[in-house]
Amino acid sequence: MLTKEQLLRPLAHNRKNAVVVTCMGVTRPWGMHSSSELDFASADSAMGHTADLALGIALAQPARKVICLNGDGSMLMTLGTLATAVEADARNLVLFVIQNETYEITGNQPIPAAGRIDFASLARGAGFRRAHYFEQAASYEQQLPALLSGDGPVFVAVRVEKGSEGPISRSRTEQARYLRASIAESAHRLRQVLTSASPSAFADHG
Hints:
Blueprint (H helix, E strand, L loop, with lengths): L3 H11 L4 E4 L4 H5 L7 E3 L8 H11 L5 E6 H6 L2 H8 L5 E7 L2 E2 L5 E2 L8 H8 L3 E5 L2 H11 L6 E6 L23 H14 L10
Parallel strand pairs: 1-2, 1-3, 3-4, 4-8, 7-8
Antiparallel strand pairs: 5-6
Helix pairs in contact: 1-7
């Protein structure tokens, strides 16, 4: 089982010019590792639609890698997104499911089928040819560069320790810069960045 630090630190190091869309319990921790203009937090949007949003960005920006850090509870709410991503041939999408088996930011209530559900198998069943599961930090870090390269869509389930993050405030009290603006302002800014710059312009902002 990985810590959030073991999950996020190597990802920030390897993300290069990718858009990173975060969700729920990793939203605030990700902001401690990255201050890129290509980060977007959807933790306070309609729950379950983070993967949908990331897929939409990937389809609109086919020349840029899009990484989605989705929660396991959120993924359960929109499993149809797995089939949609395959059907849409979203080759630049890397979809992570952070498998801590709880709804962390609302108090760590257990998700349905906690401890029994196999997300990687669900992804393979939906048509993902590249679907992986990790519960050891060393194996995850070693294989991460390959997971982020090549054609997708790629699915990565990672077993992560439970945490105690609460809801984000979208205020100046947040340490992470990308959480200090409203979700509407953040979406507007991301759109500006994506439509005004080439993918190489934002390389290595982790």
